Amino acid sequence: MAAVSQKDRNLLAVIGDEDSITGLLLAGIGNVDKEGTRRNFLVVDPKTEQSKIEEAFEEFTIERKDIAILLINQHVADRIRPTVDKYEQAFPALLEIPSKDHPYDPSKDSVLKRVQKLFGD
């Protein structure tokens, strides 16, 4: 397989609650392939199975080579925390974001924890 150039990564992907996804789609980040089967977002609700969230995370971080940044609501990332904490790739960049009902907690952010570890905090 040929190396993927960073310039080929031109999409945002989102795993989050309905309000976050709706807002980001209204901002224009939505992308659906020609067949209408492959999207760059997953709407998660309390009934969404953990395996489905993990599958989307794997698709956006490993399988797809057009994703530059993956945004994930922090409360959704908590549902798959071991998987999120193991992720160490530079691309796509992984950013945990707050949602309307769940404020951001820096102590849970996997990227921030790694940075603090590097600086010995």
Automatic annotation (TrEMBL):
Q: Which InterPro entries match?
A: ATPase_V1-cplx_f_g_su, ATPase_V1-cplx_fsu_euk, ATPase_V1_fsu_sf
- Specify the protein's topology with respect to the membrane: Peripheral membrane protein
Where is the protein found, in the record's own terms? Vacuole membrane
Q: Which Gene3D superfamilies match?
A: ATPase, V1 complex, subunit F
Function, in words: Subunit of the V1 complex of vacuolar(H+)-ATPase (V-ATPase), a multisubunit enzyme composed of a peripheral complex (V1) that hydrolyzes ATP and a membrane integral complex (V0) that translocates protons. V-ATPase is responsible for acidifying and maintaining the pH of intracellular compartments.
Q: How does it assemble?
A: V-ATPase is a heteromultimeric enzyme composed of a peripheral catalytic V1 complex (components A to H) attached to an integral membrane V0 proton pore complex (components: a, c, c', c'', d, e, f and VOA1). V-ATPase is a heteromultimeric enzyme made up of two complexes: the ATP-hydrolytic V1 complex and the proton translocation V0 complex.
Name recorded for this polypeptide: V-type proton ATPase subunit F
Which species expresses this protein natively? Steccherinum ochraceum
Gene name tied to this protein: VMA7
